[in-house]
Protein backbone atom coordinates (compact mmCIF):
# COMPACT_ATOMS: atom_id res chain seq x y z
CA UNK A 1 0.00 0.00 0.00
CA UNK A 2 1.28 3.42 -0.95
CA UNK A 3 0.91 6.20 1.62
CA UNK A 4 1.15 8.86 -1.07
CA UNK A 5 -1.81 7.47 -2.99
CA UNK A 6 -3.94 7.05 0.14
CA UNK A 7 -3.06 10.57 1.28
CA UNK A 8 -3.91 12.04 -2.11
CA UNK A 9 -7.34 10.36 -2.19
CA UNK A 10 -8.10 11.21 1.45
CA UNK A 11 -7.26 14.89 0.91
CA UNK A 12 -9.31 15.04 -2.26
CA UNK A 13 -12.30 13.37 -0.60
CA UNK A 14 -12.26 15.56 2.48
CA UNK A 15 -12.08 18.63 0.27
CA UNK A 16 -15.01 17.28 -1.74
CA UNK A 17 -17.03 16.69 1.44
CA UNK A 18 -16.62 20.29 2.52
CA UNK A 19 -17.16 21.75 -0.93
CA UNK A 20 -20.55 20.05 -1.28
CA UNK A 21 -23.17 21.95 0.71
CA UNK A 22 -25.67 19.11 0.53
CA UNK A 23 -23.25 17.03 2.56
CA UNK A 24 -21.66 19.27 5.17
CA UNK A 25 -24.57 21.61 5.96
CA UNK A 26 -26.89 18.87 7.36
CA UNK A 27 -23.94 17.40 9.26
CA UNK A 28 -23.18 20.67 11.02
CA UNK A 29 -26.85 21.37 11.71
CA UNK A 30 -27.28 17.97 13.29
CA UNK A 31 -24.20 18.29 15.50
CA UNK A 32 -24.91 21.87 16.59
CA UNK A 33 -28.57 21.19 17.27
CA UNK A 34 -28.49 17.83 19.02
CA UNK A 35 -25.08 17.87 20.68
CA UNK A 36 -24.73 21.54 21.60
CA UNK A 37 -27.99 23.52 21.63
CA UNK A 38 -30.30 20.86 23.13
CA UNK A 39 -28.04 20.08 26.15
CA UNK A 40 -27.31 23.79 26.69
CA UNK A 41 -31.03 24.61 26.77
CA UNK A 42 -31.78 21.70 29.08
CA UNK A 43 -28.96 22.70 31.43
CA UNK A 44 -30.04 26.33 31.50
CA UNK A 45 -33.74 25.57 32.00
CA UNK A 46 -33.08 22.88 34.60
CA UNK A 47 -30.69 24.92 36.70
CA UNK A 48 -31.85 28.51 36.36
CA UNK A 49 -35.58 28.28 35.71
CA UNK A 50 -38.30 26.39 37.48
CA UNK A 51 -39.43 24.49 34.39
CA UNK A 52 -38.49 21.05 35.74
CA UNK A 53 -38.97 21.83 39.43
CA UNK A 54 -42.73 21.74 39.74
CA UNK A 55 -43.87 18.66 37.91
CA UNK A 56 -47.04 16.81 38.58
CA UNK A 57 -46.71 14.23 41.33
CA UNK A 58 -47.12 11.31 38.98
CA UNK A 59 -43.90 12.34 37.20
CA UNK A 60 -41.88 13.07 40.31
CA UNK A 61 -42.59 9.71 41.89
CA UNK A 62 -41.16 7.47 39.14
CA UNK A 63 -38.12 9.76 38.80
CA UNK A 64 -37.37 9.43 42.50
CA UNK A 65 -37.84 5.69 42.35
CA UNK A 66 -35.39 5.49 39.43
CA UNK A 67 -32.87 7.46 41.49
CA UNK A 68 -33.33 5.19 44.48
CA UNK A 69 -32.84 2.03 42.50
CA UNK A 70 -29.89 3.39 40.52
CA UNK A 71 -27.21 0.68 40.19
CA UNK A 72 -24.14 2.93 40.57
CA UNK A 73 -23.76 3.95 44.17
CA UNK A 74 -21.68 7.10 43.72
CA UNK A 75 -24.11 8.28 41.12
CA UNK A 76 -27.08 7.52 43.35
CA UNK A 77 -25.66 9.52 46.19
CA UNK A 78 -24.78 12.44 43.95
CA UNK A 79 -28.30 12.44 42.47
CA UNK A 80 -29.88 12.31 45.91
CA UNK A 81 -27.67 15.15 47.15
CA UNK A 82 -28.60 17.57 44.35
CA UNK A 83 -31.01 20.22 45.62
CA UNK A 84 -33.79 20.47 43.04
CA UNK A 85 -35.53 18.08 40.70
CA UNK A 86 -34.32 20.31 37.84
CA UNK A 87 -30.67 19.89 38.81
CA UNK A 88 -31.15 16.12 39.27
CA UNK A 89 -32.60 15.93 35.78
CA UNK A 90 -29.78 17.99 34.28
CA UNK A 91 -27.16 15.81 35.95
CA UNK A 92 -28.90 12.64 34.81
CA UNK A 93 -29.37 13.96 31.27
CA UNK A 94 -25.73 15.03 30.85
CA UNK A 95 -24.39 11.75 32.17
CA UNK A 96 -26.70 9.32 30.40
CA UNK A 97 -29.33 10.63 28.09
CA UNK A 98 -26.93 12.73 26.02
CA UNK A 99 -24.82 9.67 25.14
CA UNK A 100 -27.25 8.29 22.55
CA UNK A 101 -27.52 11.77 21.00
CA UNK A 102 -23.79 11.71 20.34
CA UNK A 103 -23.97 8.14 19.07
CA UNK A 104 -26.80 8.92 16.70
CA UNK A 105 -25.31 12.11 15.32
CA UNK A 106 -21.94 10.48 14.73
CA UNK A 107 -23.53 7.47 13.06
CA UNK A 108 -25.63 9.61 10.73
CA UNK A 109 -22.73 11.89 9.83
CA UNK A 110 -20.34 9.07 9.09
CA UNK A 111 -23.03 7.44 6.99
CA UNK A 112 -23.68 10.55 4.93
CA UNK A 113 -20.00 10.94 4.08
CA UNK A 114 -19.33 7.26 3.52
CA UNK A 115 -22.41 6.75 1.33
CA UNK A 116 -21.05 9.41 -0.93
CA UNK A 117 -17.60 7.86 -1.18
CA UNK A 118 -18.01 5.28 -3.97
CA UNK A 119 -21.50 6.18 -5.13
CA UNK A 120 -20.44 9.80 -5.55
CA UNK A 121 -17.41 8.84 -7.62
CA UNK A 122 -19.60 6.64 -9.74
CA UNK A 123 -22.25 9.27 -10.31
CA UNK A 124 -19.56 11.65 -11.52
CA UNK A 125 -17.89 8.96 -13.66
CA UNK A 126 -14.62 9.37 -11.79
CA UNK A 127 -14.63 5.86 -10.35
CA UNK A 128 -13.69 4.60 -13.82
CA UNK A 129 -10.79 7.06 -13.93
CA UNK A 130 -9.57 5.80 -10.56
CA UNK A 131 -9.92 2.13 -11.51
CA UNK A 132 -7.84 2.80 -14.61
CA UNK A 133 -5.10 4.30 -12.42
CA UNK A 134 -2.41 2.30 -10.60
CA UNK A 135 -4.39 2.38 -7.35
CA UNK A 136 -4.96 -0.96 -5.65
CA UNK A 137 -8.47 -1.77 -4.45
CA UNK A 138 -7.15 -2.02 -0.90
CA UNK A 139 -5.65 1.48 -1.14
CA UNK A 140 -8.92 2.77 -2.53
CA UNK A 141 -11.02 1.26 0.29
CA UNK A 142 -8.61 2.30 3.04
CA UNK A 143 -8.48 5.85 1.66
CA UNK A 144 -12.26 6.03 1.45
CA UNK A 145 -12.65 4.82 5.03
CA UNK A 146 -10.07 7.29 6.38
CA UNK A 147 -11.60 10.13 4.35
CA UNK A 148 -14.99 9.52 5.99
CA UNK A 149 -13.52 8.85 9.45
CA UNK A 150 -11.51 12.05 9.91
CA UNK A 151 -14.27 14.65 9.35
CA UNK A 152 -16.86 12.66 11.32
CA UNK A 153 -14.63 12.19 14.34
CA UNK A 154 -13.35 15.76 14.17
CA UNK A 155 -16.90 17.04 14.24
CA UNK A 156 -17.92 14.81 17.14
CA UNK A 157 -14.79 15.62 19.18
CA UNK A 158 -15.36 19.30 18.41
CA UNK A 159 -18.89 19.07 19.78
CA UNK A 160 -17.59 17.23 22.85
CA UNK A 161 -15.00 19.91 23.61
CA UNK A 162 -17.59 22.69 23.15
CA UNK A 163 -19.88 20.81 25.55
CA UNK A 164 -17.16 20.45 28.17
CA UNK A 165 -16.58 24.20 28.10
CA UNK A 166 -20.13 25.51 27.68
CA UNK A 167 -22.04 23.10 29.90
CA UNK A 168 -19.56 23.18 32.72
CA UNK A 169 -19.64 26.96 32.52
CA UNK A 170 -23.44 26.87 32.83
CA UNK A 171 -23.70 24.21 35.50
CA UNK A 172 -20.58 24.11 37.68
CA UNK A 173 -21.82 26.69 40.17
CA UNK A 174 -24.79 24.47 41.04
CA UNK A 175 -23.72 20.91 40.35
CA UNK A 176 -20.18 21.36 41.73
CA UNK A 177 -18.74 18.60 39.61
CA UNK A 178 -17.10 18.74 36.17
CA UNK A 179 -19.45 17.13 33.69
CA UNK A 180 -18.21 14.90 30.84
CA UNK A 181 -14.72 14.41 32.31
CA UNK A 182 -15.63 11.00 33.75
CA UNK A 183 -14.86 7.41 32.81
CA UNK A 184 -18.15 6.80 30.99
CA UNK A 185 -17.86 9.81 28.71
CA UNK A 186 -14.15 9.45 28.01
CA UNK A 187 -14.61 5.75 27.25
CA UNK A 188 -17.47 6.62 24.97
CA UNK A 189 -15.67 9.36 23.07
CA UNK A 190 -12.27 7.72 22.67
CA UNK A 191 -13.12 4.03 22.56
CA UNK A 192 -16.72 3.30 21.56
CA UNK A 193 -17.42 6.12 19.11
CA UNK A 194 -14.24 5.65 17.04
CA UNK A 195 -14.89 1.89 16.84
CA UNK A 196 -18.55 2.44 16.03
CA UNK A 197 -17.81 5.05 13.39
CA UNK A 198 -15.23 2.81 11.80
CA UNK A 199 -17.67 -0.09 11.74
CA UNK A 200 -20.39 2.04 10.25
CA UNK A 201 -18.08 3.60 7.67
CA UNK A 202 -16.68 0.28 6.47
CA UNK A 203 -20.21 -1.02 6.14
CA UNK A 204 -21.43 2.12 4.33
CA UNK A 205 -18.40 2.19 2.02
CA UNK A 206 -19.03 -1.44 1.21
CA UNK A 207 -22.71 -0.75 0.52
CA UNK A 208 -21.73 2.32 -1.46
CA UNK A 209 -19.45 0.21 -3.64
CA UNK A 210 -22.26 -2.23 -4.38
CA UNK A 211 -25.31 -0.08 -5.00
CA UNK A 212 -26.15 2.16 -7.90
CA UNK A 213 -26.59 5.60 -6.39
CA UNK A 214 -25.94 7.89 -3.43
CA UNK A 215 -29.64 7.75 -2.43
CA UNK A 216 -29.64 3.97 -2.45
CA UNK A 217 -26.49 3.91 -0.32
CA UNK A 218 -28.14 6.21 2.22
CA UNK A 219 -31.29 4.11 2.38
CA UNK A 220 -29.26 0.99 3.14
CA UNK A 221 -27.39 3.02 5.72
CA UNK A 222 -30.67 3.95 7.41
CA UNK A 223 -31.07 0.37 8.54
CA UNK A 224 -27.92 0.77 10.59
CA UNK A 225 -29.33 3.69 12.59
CA UNK A 226 -32.22 1.60 13.93
CA UNK A 227 -30.26 -0.18 16.69
CA UNK A 228 -29.15 3.21 18.02
CA UNK A 229 -32.72 4.45 18.07
CA UNK A 230 -33.50 1.33 20.06
CA UNK A 231 -30.83 2.21 22.62
CA UNK A 232 -32.24 5.71 22.98
CA UNK A 233 -35.70 4.38 23.76
CA UNK A 234 -34.49 1.79 26.22
CA UNK A 235 -32.13 4.29 27.82
CA UNK A 236 -34.84 6.86 28.31
CA UNK A 237 -37.20 4.34 29.89
CA UNK A 238 -34.52 3.25 32.33
CA UNK A 239 -34.40 -0.35 31.19
CA UNK A 240 -30.81 -0.34 30.20
CA UNK A 241 -27.90 1.68 31.47
CA UNK A 242 -24.68 2.05 29.60
CA UNK A 243 -22.22 1.20 32.34
CA UNK A 244 -18.49 1.57 31.78
CA UNK A 245 -18.11 -2.18 31.42
CA UNK A 246 -20.88 -2.44 28.84
CA UNK A 247 -19.38 0.47 26.92
CA UNK A 248 -15.98 -1.17 26.95
CA UNK A 249 -17.42 -4.47 25.73
CA UNK A 250 -19.40 -2.75 22.98
CA UNK A 251 -16.11 -1.20 21.78
CA UNK A 252 -14.39 -4.59 21.79
CA UNK A 253 -17.25 -6.15 19.85
CA UNK A 254 -17.17 -3.39 17.27
CA UNK A 255 -13.43 -3.67 16.80
CA UNK A 256 -13.74 -7.40 16.20
CA UNK A 257 -16.52 -6.65 13.73
CA UNK A 258 -14.25 -4.15 11.98
CA UNK A 259 -11.52 -6.72 11.51
CA UNK A 260 -13.99 -9.22 10.06
CA UNK A 261 -15.56 -6.61 7.79
CA UNK A 262 -12.21 -5.44 6.45
CA UNK A 263 -11.25 -9.00 5.60
CA UNK A 264 -14.56 -9.50 3.89
CA UNK A 265 -14.17 -6.27 1.92
CA UNK A 266 -10.81 -7.26 0.49
CA UNK A 267 -11.89 -10.80 -0.34
CA UNK A 268 -15.09 -9.88 -2.15
CA UNK A 269 -14.01 -6.75 -3.97
CA UNK A 270 -11.55 -7.27 -6.78
CA UNK A 271 -11.00 -4.55 -9.35
CA UNK A 272 -12.53 -6.89 -11.89
CA UNK A 273 -15.86 -7.33 -10.13
CA UNK A 274 -16.00 -3.73 -8.93
CA UNK A 275 -15.52 -2.63 -12.52
CA UNK A 276 -17.95 -5.08 -14.05
CA UNK A 277 -20.66 -4.31 -11.50
CA UNK A 278 -20.22 -0.54 -11.37
CA UNK A 279 -19.04 0.70 -14.77
CA UNK A 280 -21.17 0.38 -17.86
CA UNK B 1 9.43 -4.66 -30.68
CA UNK B 2 5.84 -5.47 -29.85
CA UNK B 3 4.37 -3.44 -27.00
CA UNK B 4 1.05 -5.27 -27.07
CA UNK B 5 0.49 -8.91 -27.90
CA UNK B 6 -3.03 -10.31 -27.88
CA UNK B 7 -3.67 -13.91 -28.81
CA UNK B 8 -6.98 -15.73 -29.10
CA UNK B 9 -8.74 -13.53 -26.59
CA UNK B 10 -12.38 -14.16 -25.72
CA UNK B 11 -14.57 -12.12 -23.43
CA UNK B 12 -18.13 -12.93 -22.45
CA UNK B 13 -20.51 -11.17 -20.06
CA UNK B 14 -23.27 -13.45 -18.76
CA UNK B 15 -22.82 -15.87 -21.66
CA UNK B 16 -22.97 -13.05 -24.18
CA UNK B 17 -19.81 -13.04 -26.27
CA UNK B 18 -18.34 -9.57 -26.61
CA UNK B 19 -14.96 -10.57 -28.07
CA UNK B 20 -14.34 -13.70 -30.03
CA UNK B 21 -10.86 -15.09 -30.68
CA UNK B 22 -9.11 -11.77 -31.16
CA UNK B 23 -5.37 -11.70 -31.93
CA UNK B 24 -3.14 -8.78 -32.88
CA UNK B 25 0.11 -7.02 -32.04
CA UNK B 26 1.08 -3.39 -31.66
CA UNK B 27 4.62 -2.20 -32.44
CA UNK B 28 6.47 0.19 -30.16
CA UNK B 29 6.35 3.78 -31.40
CA UNK B 30 3.41 3.25 -33.74
CA UNK B 31 -0.04 4.83 -33.85
CA UNK B 32 -2.76 2.24 -34.22
CA UNK B 33 -6.41 2.63 -35.00
CA UNK B 34 -8.84 0.12 -33.49
CA UNK B 35 -11.86 0.64 -35.70
CA UNK B 36 -15.37 -0.64 -35.76
CA UNK B 37 -18.99 0.34 -35.26
CA UNK B 38 -20.51 0.94 -31.83
CA UNK B 39 -20.82 -2.32 -29.93
CA UNK B 40 -17.99 -4.02 -31.83
CA UNK B 41 -16.01 -4.58 -28.61
CA UNK B 42 -13.46 -1.76 -28.84
CA UNK B 43 -13.98 -0.43 -25.31
CA UNK B 44 -13.95 -3.97 -23.91
CA UNK B 45 -10.59 -4.54 -25.63
CA UNK B 46 -9.12 -1.40 -24.01
CA UNK B 47 -10.41 -2.49 -20.60
CA UNK B 48 -8.88 -5.94 -21.02
CA UNK B 49 -5.53 -4.43 -22.03
CA UNK B 50 -5.55 -2.34 -18.85
CA UNK B 51 -6.46 -5.29 -16.65
CA UNK B 52 -9.59 -3.69 -15.21
CA UNK B 53 -11.63 -6.62 -16.48
CA UNK B 54 -10.38 -10.12 -17.18
CA UNK B 55 -10.64 -12.17 -20.37
CA UNK B 56 -12.68 -15.35 -20.50
CA UNK B 57 -9.95 -17.00 -22.57
CA UNK B 58 -6.71 -16.30 -24.45
CA UNK B 59 -3.55 -14.44 -23.56
CA UNK B 60 -2.63 -10.79 -23.32
CA UNK B 61 0.78 -9.24 -22.86
CA UNK B 62 1.23 -5.49 -22.49
CA UNK B 63 4.76 -4.09 -22.13
CA UNK B 64 5.87 -7.49 -20.84
CA UNK B 65 3.13 -7.80 -18.21
CA UNK B 66 0.00 -9.89 -17.95
CA UNK B 67 -2.83 -7.41 -17.25
CA UNK B 68 -4.66 -9.97 -15.15
CA UNK B 69 -1.73 -10.47 -12.78
CA UNK B 70 0.28 -7.25 -12.99
CA UNK B 71 -2.36 -4.71 -13.95
CA UNK B 72 -0.90 -2.00 -11.74
CA UNK B 73 2.47 -2.29 -13.54
CA UNK B 74 0.70 -1.67 -16.85
CA UNK B 75 -1.50 1.10 -15.49
CA UNK B 76 1.60 2.79 -14.05
CA UNK B 77 3.19 2.89 -17.51
CA UNK B 78 0.12 3.60 -19.62
CA UNK B 79 -2.02 6.69 -20.02
CA UNK B 80 -5.69 6.47 -20.82
CA UNK B 81 -8.54 8.66 -21.94
CA UNK B 82 -11.90 6.94 -22.13
CA UNK B 83 -15.18 8.29 -23.33
CA UNK B 84 -16.95 8.13 -19.97
CA UNK B 85 -14.12 8.36 -17.43
CA UNK B 86 -14.23 11.86 -16.10
CA UNK B 87 -12.24 14.50 -14.26
CA UNK B 88 -13.38 16.00 -10.97
CA UNK B 89 -15.74 18.82 -11.88
CA UNK B 90 -15.60 20.42 -8.45
CA UNK B 91 -11.83 20.80 -8.69
CA UNK B 92 -9.79 23.20 -10.83
CA UNK B 93 -7.70 22.06 -13.78
CA UNK B 94 -4.58 22.45 -11.67
CA UNK B 95 -6.06 20.49 -8.72
CA UNK B 96 -7.14 17.68 -11.04
CA UNK B 97 -3.71 17.40 -12.60
CA UNK B 98 -1.85 17.51 -9.31
CA UNK B 99 -4.22 14.91 -7.80
CA UNK B 100 -3.67 12.48 -10.68
CA UNK B 101 0.07 13.19 -10.70
CA UNK B 102 0.18 12.07 -7.06
CA UNK B 103 -1.93 9.00 -7.82
CA UNK B 104 0.52 8.05 -10.58
CA UNK B 105 3.48 8.75 -8.29
CA UNK B 106 4.70 11.44 -10.69
CA UNK B 107 4.05 14.73 -8.95
CA UNK B 108 6.14 17.34 -10.73
CA UNK B 109 5.04 20.97 -10.93
CA UNK B 110 7.22 21.55 -14.00
CA UNK B 111 5.59 18.71 -15.89
CA UNK B 112 2.09 19.99 -15.05
CA UNK B 113 3.07 23.49 -16.17
CA UNK B 114 4.59 22.13 -19.35
CA UNK B 115 1.47 20.13 -20.24
CA UNK B 116 -0.85 23.05 -19.47
CA UNK B 117 1.24 25.11 -21.86
CA UNK B 118 1.27 22.40 -24.51
CA UNK B 119 -2.50 22.19 -24.43
CA UNK B 120 -3.00 25.92 -24.23
CA UNK B 121 -4.73 25.78 -20.85
CA UNK B 122 -2.41 27.86 -18.65
CA UNK B 123 -4.85 30.77 -18.42
CA UNK B 124 -7.64 28.38 -17.29
CA UNK B 125 -5.63 26.41 -14.73
CA UNK B 126 -7.43 27.88 -11.70
CA UNK B 127 -10.94 27.47 -13.11
CA UNK B 128 -13.25 24.60 -12.13
CA UNK B 129 -13.24 21.78 -14.67
CA UNK B 130 -17.05 21.70 -14.41
CA UNK B 131 -17.19 25.06 -16.18
CA UNK B 132 -15.08 23.89 -19.15
CA UNK B 133 -16.29 23.14 -22.68
CA UNK B 134 -15.98 19.56 -23.98
CA UNK B 135 -12.87 20.53 -25.92
CA UNK B 136 -11.19 22.04 -22.87
CA UNK B 137 -12.04 18.99 -20.76
CA UNK B 138 -10.57 16.77 -23.46
CA UNK B 139 -7.35 18.77 -23.41
CA UNK B 140 -7.07 18.44 -19.62
CA UNK B 141 -7.79 14.70 -19.97
CA UNK B 142 -4.96 14.44 -22.48
CA UNK B 143 -2.65 16.32 -20.11
CA UNK B 144 -3.76 14.00 -17.28
CA UNK B 145 -2.98 10.92 -19.40
CA UNK B 146 0.52 12.24 -20.11
CA UNK B 147 1.49 13.38 -16.59
CA UNK B 148 3.60 10.31 -15.86
CA UNK B 149 5.27 10.19 -19.32
CA UNK B 150 3.57 6.94 -20.34
CA UNK B 151 5.07 4.54 -22.86
CA UNK B 152 1.65 3.64 -24.12
CA UNK B 153 -1.45 5.75 -24.58
CA UNK B 154 -4.99 4.38 -24.89
CA UNK B 155 -7.66 6.61 -26.33
CA UNK B 156 -11.29 5.56 -26.52
CA UNK B 157 -13.24 7.75 -28.93
CA UNK B 158 -11.05 10.78 -28.20
CA UNK B 159 -12.86 13.06 -30.61
CA UNK B 160 -16.44 12.42 -29.48
CA UNK B 161 -18.36 15.59 -28.79
CA UNK B 162 -15.69 17.84 -30.28
CA UNK B 163 -16.22 20.42 -33.02
CA UNK B 164 -14.17 20.11 -36.22
CA UNK B 165 -11.56 22.49 -34.89
CA UNK B 166 -11.26 20.50 -31.67
CA UNK B 167 -10.93 17.25 -33.59
CA UNK B 168 -8.15 18.71 -35.71
CA UNK B 169 -6.35 19.89 -32.58
CA UNK B 170 -6.58 16.51 -30.85
CA UNK B 171 -5.33 14.66 -33.91
CA UNK B 172 -2.48 17.13 -34.21
CA UNK B 173 -1.57 16.75 -30.50
CA UNK B 174 -1.50 12.98 -30.83
CA UNK B 175 0.90 13.12 -33.76
CA UNK B 176 3.06 15.53 -31.81
CA UNK B 177 3.09 13.37 -28.66
CA UNK B 178 3.98 10.32 -30.72
CA UNK B 179 6.91 12.17 -32.29
CA UNK B 180 8.20 14.08 -29.29
CA UNK B 181 7.64 11.65 -26.43
CA UNK B 182 7.88 8.44 -28.47
CA UNK B 183 4.55 7.28 -27.09
CA UNK B 184 2.91 4.27 -28.68
CA UNK B 185 -0.77 5.02 -29.26
CA UNK B 186 -3.88 2.89 -29.61
CA UNK B 187 -6.97 4.83 -30.66
CA UNK B 188 -10.49 3.40 -30.72
CA UNK B 189 -12.92 5.12 -32.99
CA UNK B 190 -15.90 4.69 -35.21
CA UNK B 191 -15.23 7.93 -37.06
CA UNK B 192 -12.85 6.65 -39.69
CA UNK B 193 -11.86 9.67 -41.72
CA UNK B 194 -10.42 11.39 -38.64
CA UNK B 195 -7.81 8.69 -38.19
CA UNK B 196 -6.87 8.38 -41.82
CA UNK B 197 -3.85 10.62 -41.70
CA UNK B 198 -2.51 9.80 -38.28
CA UNK B 199 -2.48 6.00 -37.91
CA UNK B 200 0.33 3.76 -39.07
CA UNK B 201 -1.75 0.62 -38.91
CA UNK B 202 -5.34 -0.40 -38.45
CA UNK B 203 -7.33 -3.10 -36.69
CA UNK B 204 -10.91 -3.65 -37.79
CA UNK B 205 -13.34 -5.06 -35.23
CA UNK B 206 -16.84 -6.15 -36.09
CA UNK B 207 -19.23 -7.96 -33.77
CA UNK B 208 -16.41 -8.97 -31.47
CA UNK B 209 -14.21 -10.38 -34.22
CA UNK B 210 -11.05 -8.91 -35.65
CA UNK B 211 -11.92 -8.97 -39.34
CA UNK B 212 -8.78 -7.37 -40.75
CA UNK B 213 -5.52 -5.74 -39.73
CA UNK B 214 -2.56 -4.12 -41.44
CA UNK B 215 -0.95 -0.90 -42.58
CA UNK B 216 -2.76 1.39 -44.96
CA UNK B 217 -0.55 0.17 -47.80
CA UNK B 218 -1.16 -3.50 -47.04
CA UNK B 219 -4.89 -2.96 -46.88
CA UNK B 220 -4.93 -1.01 -50.15
CA UNK B 221 -2.96 -3.72 -51.91
CA UNK B 222 -5.36 -6.32 -50.66
CA UNK B 223 -8.66 -4.58 -51.18
CA UNK B 224 -8.19 -2.04 -53.94
CA UNK B 225 -8.89 -4.13 -57.03
CA UNK B 226 -9.72 -1.01 -58.97
CA UNK B 227 -8.30 2.47 -58.55
CA UNK B 228 -10.37 5.50 -59.38
CA UNK B 229 -8.27 8.53 -60.33
CA UNK B 230 -9.56 12.01 -61.00
CA UNK B 231 -7.18 13.94 -63.26
CA UNK B 232 -7.43 17.64 -63.93
CA UNK B 233 -6.19 17.95 -67.51
CA UNK B 234 -6.74 19.72 -70.82
CA UNK B 235 -6.91 16.38 -72.63
CA UNK B 236 -9.84 16.21 -75.01
CA UNK B 237 -11.17 12.70 -75.61
CA UNK B 238 -13.94 11.02 -77.52
CA UNK B 239 -15.55 7.67 -76.56
CA UNK B 240 -15.17 6.03 -73.12
CA UNK B 241 -11.72 4.48 -73.11
CA UNK B 242 -8.21 5.86 -73.33
CA UNK B 243 -5.26 3.44 -73.56
CA UNK B 244 -7.76 0.68 -72.70
CA UNK B 245 -8.64 2.45 -69.43
CA UNK B 246 -12.31 3.30 -68.95
CA UNK B 247 -12.97 6.94 -68.15
CA UNK B 248 -15.81 9.41 -67.77
CA UNK B 249 -15.85 13.16 -67.93
CA UNK B 250 -16.93 14.69 -64.63
CA UNK B 251 -16.16 18.35 -65.36
CA UNK B 252 -14.88 20.64 -68.12
CA UNK B 253 -11.26 19.77 -67.35
CA UNK B 254 -11.73 16.74 -65.11
CA UNK B 255 -11.64 13.10 -66.12
CA UNK B 256 -12.17 10.08 -63.88
CA UNK B 257 -10.22 6.98 -64.89
CA UNK B 258 -10.71 3.46 -63.62
CA UNK B 259 -7.36 1.63 -63.40
CA UNK B 260 -6.61 -1.99 -62.41
CA UNK B 261 -3.86 -0.89 -59.99
CA UNK B 262 -1.95 2.11 -58.70
CA UNK B 263 1.02 1.08 -60.84
CA UNK B 264 -0.85 2.21 -63.93
CA UNK B 265 -1.04 5.82 -62.73
CA UNK B 266 2.44 6.92 -63.89
CA UNK B 267 1.92 5.13 -67.21
CA UNK B 268 -1.34 6.98 -67.78
CA UNK B 269 0.07 10.34 -66.68
CA UNK B 270 3.16 10.04 -68.91
CA UNK B 271 0.90 9.39 -71.86
CA UNK B 272 -1.44 12.28 -71.11
CA UNK B 273 1.47 14.69 -70.55
CA UNK B 274 2.72 13.92 -74.05
CA UNK B 275 -0.37 15.58 -75.52
CA UNK B 276 -1.70 17.95 -72.85
CA UNK B 277 -1.20 19.43 -69.37
CA UNK B 278 -2.02 17.92 -65.95
CA UNK B 279 -2.71 20.09 -62.88
CA UNK B 280 -3.73 17.46 -60.36
CA UNK B 281 -4.25 13.77 -59.91
CA UNK B 282 -6.08 12.19 -56.98
CA UNK B 283 -7.10 8.66 -56.05
CA UNK B 284 -10.72 8.92 -54.91
CA UNK B 285 -11.59 5.45 -53.62
CA UNK B 286 -8.77 4.92 -51.12
CA UNK B 287 -10.36 6.63 -48.13
CA UNK B 288 -10.34 4.63 -44.94
CA UNK B 289 -14.10 4.62 -45.03
CA UNK B 290 -14.32 3.00 -48.44
CA UNK B 291 -11.66 0.48 -47.42
CA UNK B 292 -13.65 -0.24 -44.28
CA UNK B 293 -16.85 -0.99 -46.18
CA UNK B 294 -14.92 -3.17 -48.60
CA UNK B 295 -13.37 -5.12 -45.72
CA UNK B 296 -16.68 -5.39 -43.90
CA UNK B 297 -18.42 -6.52 -47.09
CA UNK B 298 -15.77 -9.20 -47.68
CA UNK B 299 -15.97 -10.48 -44.11
CA UNK B 300 -19.76 -10.70 -44.33
CA UNK B 301 -19.44 -12.76 -47.50
CA UNK B 302 -17.01 -15.10 -45.75
CA UNK B 303 -19.37 -15.65 -42.84
CA UNK B 304 -22.26 -16.30 -45.24
CA UNK B 305 -20.35 -18.94 -47.20
TrEMBL record, chain A:
Assigned keywords, A-Z? Membrane, Transmembrane, Transmembrane helix
Q: Which domain of life is it from?
A: Bacteria
For this record, the Gene Ontology CC terms, alphabetical, are: plasma membrane
Q: Name one GO molecular function term.
A: ABC-type transporter activity
Span of the secretion signal? none
Q: Where are the transmembrane segments?
A: 23-44, 89-114, 145-171, 183-208, 220-240, 246-265
The record's annotation in Pfam families points to: ABC2_membrane_2 (PF12679)
Instruction: List the PANTHER family.
Output: INTEGRAL MEMBRANE PROTEIN-RELATED, MEMBRANE PROTEIN
Q: This protein is called what?
A: ABC-2 family transporter
Automatic annotation (TrEMBL), chain B:
- The keyword Ligase belongs to this UniProt entry's keyword annotation: no
The alphabetical list of record keywords is:
ATP-binding, Nucleotide-binding, Transport
Indicate the segments forming the ABC transporter domain, all copies: 4-232
Pfam families, sorted: ABC_tran
Any idea which GO molecular function terms this record carries?
Answer: ATP binding; ATP hydrolysis activity
Key word Amino-acid biosynthesis present: no
Q: What InterPro entries would the database entry show? A: AAA+_ATPase, ABC_transporter-like_ATP-bd, ABC_transporter_ATP-binding, P-loop_NTPase
Q: Family per UniProt? A: Belongs to the ABC transporter superfamily.
Q: What's this protein's name? A: ABC-2 type transport system ATP-binding protein
Its source organism is Mesobacillus foraminis
Amino acid sequence: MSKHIIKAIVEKDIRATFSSKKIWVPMFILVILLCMIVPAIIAYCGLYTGVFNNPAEDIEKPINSVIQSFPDEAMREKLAALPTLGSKFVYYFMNFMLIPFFLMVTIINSMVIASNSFAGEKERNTLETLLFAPVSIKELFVAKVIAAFIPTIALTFGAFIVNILVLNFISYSIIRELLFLNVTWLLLMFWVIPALVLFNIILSVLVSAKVKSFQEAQQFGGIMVLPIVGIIISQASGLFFLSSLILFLIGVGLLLGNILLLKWVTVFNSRNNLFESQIH
Amino acid sequence: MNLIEVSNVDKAFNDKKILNNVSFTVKEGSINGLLGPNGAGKTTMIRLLNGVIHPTGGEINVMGYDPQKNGDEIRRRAGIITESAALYHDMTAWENLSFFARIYGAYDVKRIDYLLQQFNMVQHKDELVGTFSTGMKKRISLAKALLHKPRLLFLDEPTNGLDPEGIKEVIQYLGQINQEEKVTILICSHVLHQLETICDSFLFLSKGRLIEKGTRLELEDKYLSQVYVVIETGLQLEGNTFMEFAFRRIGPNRLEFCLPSKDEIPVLLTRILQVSWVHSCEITNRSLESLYFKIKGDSNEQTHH
